[in-house]
Specification:
heterotrimer, A alpha+beta (about 450), B alpha+beta (about 240), C alpha/beta (about 180), A: 3-stranded antiparallel beta sheet, globular, C: about 180 residues, 4-stranded parallel beta sheet
Chain lengths: ~450, ~240, ~180
């Protein structure tokens, strides 16, 4: 009955003449200058392997994109000989959201809500980099009030603590230290409570806006943060006591994922990975922003260039962040939290109204009863947005994972013309091959955990 | 597009005569998406020229002059010079941008990395920008470099036409640029010659089109609410600016 | 499936339904399908403060073959959609899907070329949970509502009757676009 002959989808010596076509809607193949490219979506894995000429001892294993220990939807394609990895490649793009293109259809302030969802473990860092760039384009970097800068630093450091805690927690869990996970998330809840108190949300805050911050510190906020800062060190001690100098942990992390300074420089690696190679490069010290030059803190480094070193660097960075928070709380003076220029400043502070949401009643009284200009500004800013003069700028800050840089191009309008995020995880993941090849499969998990990629930032 | 001779004249020593003007990027007319007769608001007749910051004449200020001189000297060892390799230098908002000609990009970038006075060790990546109305120079590839030694940043920009979007790949000098170039190819269609493996990285391998170009639609769908439908973001009424 | 398909309508089937519902809802094991930001809130829900273990659900099974509930947590991109379908197909019956967050329910704020506008384009969804991201308490609320739904699931002959009734109701129901006058 099957008298139809099918045309071979590719040339494999003629055995495909009586089988159905090997291409389907989701996984085609086509020729490129580098050879034949196959789209593999699972299920047809063995067909691809049969076609690709390869040695019989090598096994190609696909880890992910759905995998409990790949930090999100990361796909690792590992070619192995026994337990040893001969080639490791990353397949990314499974979380590509087109945020950068979406920003071109939103105003400069609305873009903050999108930008915050890229690297979702350090949302404040994304917003901070973007707003730094917009403020440079506007030329108002020096006009941002000091209280707003301090609030930015406070939320940035709180975010750094919570992000490093997730890195330690998930890193520990992936290598089997489940207590690190439960402890890490427990401590993180304290920090998230503080962020929720300040910004209103536990994640994806949209708090830092061009010109300042969206909300002032609420009543009693400073005392609450100080109480948490007193409580945290004792609680945070759980993870170090368990893992630092722990024989089993060191067996799994010392000497693993080795990437020395030359490798870091060649691959453009920044963040804890670079600091574990001995170089104390931190943008908060070398190119300070938001007033970081007034703070006293150290940049922790180790020189072992391995997973254990990065683990120690992150632990110490949490301590340094707490130090910065202490100093920032001391420096807080009463004042505005938005730039004085009413044509740029986000008009109002939100508060809980009678229907559970809305602007504060004082603000409404002001714009409706007291000032026509305020009403006009509010209307224009919310509907149209402010105009940013033409030009391009690159702003970079030190996010928990490394340097997050934003390249913003403005065409003079109310919407960004082009925003490109140079996410640290995107760049740092390129080190996977260098770290994993020659090692064993179990070490891949540790190496990736030490890079600490967040796939939202990688794929944007 | 239209030339603005005054802007070019100011930087005549850097931009050779006859070179396409850098600053004008677009000429836009109308507002609120309206045009032609029938729009009585008057905004339909609005014509605005969108101009990027003009090329700067020497002296640039700060450390920029010294860096430009070093580059000039270094490039002369390659048989080039700063004027030949670079179309224009723009100093704006405290940042310096070298608009490099594509054929001299590799030499330029090699000198950025290797000269001891420059030492831009880290390439933070390449980003693409699409200016659909800047005929002949639609696709721009923008690199940013960081020097940890001297604590400086510099930007390098290369413009290519959409009909022949080829730029040399700098992966041989800065391996960090690997995935960034793949992403720029994926999103804008800028082909980096001699890249070790230029394939799509963010979109599925068989995707057609280059999503972040301006002529590629945002691709949303209308959203249905109770009793109303809202069109996707790129089709709504807007202050077209 | 089993005995419940063969039973006639009546009180014996009702008792079997109750027992099956209790058993299924009280130890529903989620599959790890954390995609983006919502997955972090899902992890927080499983952690100590918003404990999912009290509902019998702290064992997030990495293998879909051992899981009952797929919590699609996060935005689903076009590239990931076939993977989602494959994981869903690998789960054995009975299985449920919870679309966590607005991105999974409807595409969320990302109405563009890269995101599937709601995972119900790919898999059948039982509970939609809005939020960006939904708080852990909201996730637990959604899970508890799903548990109630599962406990009330009808089997066999009862289910056939229910399906017919639901279909007839849906055919005469008012479509969303016709529900005018509700936007205040």
């Amino acid at each position: 009955m099957n008298d139809v002959t099918y045309e071979a989808a590719f040339d494999d010596g003629g055995s495909a003449t009586t089988e159905p076509p090997l291409t389907d809607a989701y996984s085609g193949s086509y020729d490129t200058t580098e050879g034949r490219v196959y789209t593999v979506t699972g299920g047809d894995w063995d067909t691809v392997l049969a076609a690709a000429a390869g040695e019989k001892e090598r096994v190609v294993v696909n880890m992910g994109p759905q995998h409990p220990s790949t930090h999100g939807v990361l796909r690792l394609i590992l070619e192995m000989q026994g337990e040893t990895i001969t080639e490791a490649r990353c397949g990314i793009g499974y979380l590509h959201t087109g945020i950068e293109k979406n920003l071109e259809y939103r105003t400069w302030t609305q873009a903050v809500a999108y930008v915050t969802r890229m690297d979702y473990l350090a949302p404040i860092a994304n917003e901070a980099a973007y707003c730094l760039g917009v403020e440079r384009l506007l030329g108002i970097v020096d006009d941002v009030p000091p209280r707003a800068q301090l609030m930015r630093i406070i939320t940035l450091e709180l975010n750094r603590i919570s992000s490093h805690l997730v890195a330690l927690a998930t890193g520990g869990m992936e290598m089997g230290a489940l207590t690190a996970m439960t402890n890490g998330f427990r401590d993180r809840e304290l920090v998230l409570d503080m962020l929720e108190m300040i910004t209103g949300l536990r994640m994806n805050h949209a708090y830092i806006r061009p010109g300042g911050v969206a909300q002032d510190m609420p009543e009693g906020g400073v005392e609450k943060i100080r109480a948490v800062l007193k409580q945290l060190p004792a609680q945070l001690d759980g993870v170090p006591t368990l893992l630092v100098d722990n024989g089993i942990w060191k067996d799994r992390t010392a000497g693993i994922g080795y990437l020395d300074l030359a490798g870091c420089m060649a691959l453009g690696i920044t963040g804890p990975v670079l600091r574990s190679a001995g170089l104390p490069h931190d943008l908060r010290k070398s190119q300070p922003y938001f007033g970081y030059e007034k703070f006293e803190f150290d940049v922790p480094t180790t020189d072992t260039c391995d997973v254990y070193g990065r683990f120690l660097v992150r632990l110490e960075e949490i301590n340094q962040s707490m130090r910065i928070l202490d100093q920032a709380l001391d420096m807080l003076e009463p004042g505005p939290v938005m730039v004085a220029d009413k044509k740029i400043a986000w008009p109002s502070q939100l508060s809980i109204g009678s229907d559970g949401q809305g602007n504060s009643l004082e603000h409404i009284r002001h714009i409706m009863g007291e000032s026509m200009e305020a009403l006009i500004h509010h209307f224009k800013l919310v509907t149209e947005g402010f105009h940013v003069p033409t030009g391009q700028v690159y702003a970079a800050i030190e996010a928990p994972r490394g340097e997050v840089g934003v390249h913003i191009v403005s065409d003079g309008g109310t919407r960004p013309y082009r925003v490109h995020f140079r996410d640290p995880s995107f760049n740092n993941l390129q080190a996977t091959a260098a770290m994993c090849e020659g090692g064993q499969v179990a070490d891949v998990v540790g190496a990736i955990a030490s890079i600490d990629p967040v796939l939202g930032g990688v794929d944007r | 597009m239209t030339d603005t001779p005054d802007a070019v004249g100011a930087a005549a020593d850097v931009v050779p005569a006859g070179a396409p003007t850098l600053p004008v990027v677009d000429v836009r007319s109308g507002m609120f998406g309206s045009s032609g007769s029938g729009d009585t608001s008057g905004y339909g007749g609005l014509v605005r020229t969108i101009e990027m910051p003009a090329p700067t004449a020497r002296p640039f200020g700060g450390w920029f002059d010294e860096a430009a001189d070093e580059l000039d000297l270094a490039l002369q060892e390659d048989g080039l010079s700063l004027d030949r390799a670079v179309e224009a230098v723009v100093v704006d908002r405290g940042e310096i941008t070298f608009h490099v000609r594509p054929e001299h990009l590799l030499a330029f970038v090699q000198r950025l990395r290797d000269e001891s006075a420059l030492r831009f060790e880290i390439c933070t990546g390449v980003s693409g920008v699409h200016y659909p109305n800047q005929t002949g120079r639609e696709l721009h590839a923008v690199w940013h470099f960081l020097s940890i030694t001297h604590n400086r940043r510099v930007r390098v920009e290369v413009s290519v036409p959409v009909s022949h979007p080829h730029v040399p790949s700098i992966v041989s000098v800065y391996p960090a640029d690997d995935w960034h170039e793949r992403e720029t190819f994926d999103m804008f269609g800028i082909v980096f010659d001699d890249h070790p493996g230029l394939t799509r990285i963010l979109m599925p391998d068989d995707w057609v089109g280059f999503p972040q170009r301006k002529d590629y639609p945002l691709g949303g769908i209308p959203v249905e609410y109770k009793g109303a439908t809202i069109p996707p973001p790129d089709e709504r009424r807007s202050y077209s600016s | 499936m089993g005995i419940e398909e063969a039973l006639p309508e009546g009180i014996f089937l009702t008792t079997v339904e109750k027992a099956a519902g209790l058993a299924r809802s009280h130890s529903m094991w989620p599959a790890t399908f954390g995609l983006a930001c919502c997955s972090i809130e899902m992890m927080s829900t499983g952690a100590g403060r918003f404990d999912l273990a009290r509902f019998g659900m702290e064992v997030f099974r990495p293998s879909p073959r051992q899981a009952d509930l797929m919590i699609v947590a996060g935005r689903l991109s076009q590239k990931m959609a076939p993977v989602l379908r494959q994981i869903y197909d690998q789960m054995p019956e009975p299985k449920w899907v919870l679309a966590m967050g607005v991105c999974a329910s409807s595409g969320g704020m990302f109405n563009n070329y890269a995101i599937v506008q709601g995972v119900d384009h790919i898999v059948p969804v039982d509970i939609y949970l809005p939020g960006c991201p939904p708080r852990p308490e909201m996730l637990i609320d959604a899970i508890l509502k799903l548990h109630e739904q599962v406990e009330a699931t009808k089997l066999g002959a009862h289910r056939q009757k229910e399906i017919t009734e639901l279909e007839e109701a849906a055919l005469v129901a008012e479509p969303t676009s016709a529900m005018k006058g509700l936007l205040r």
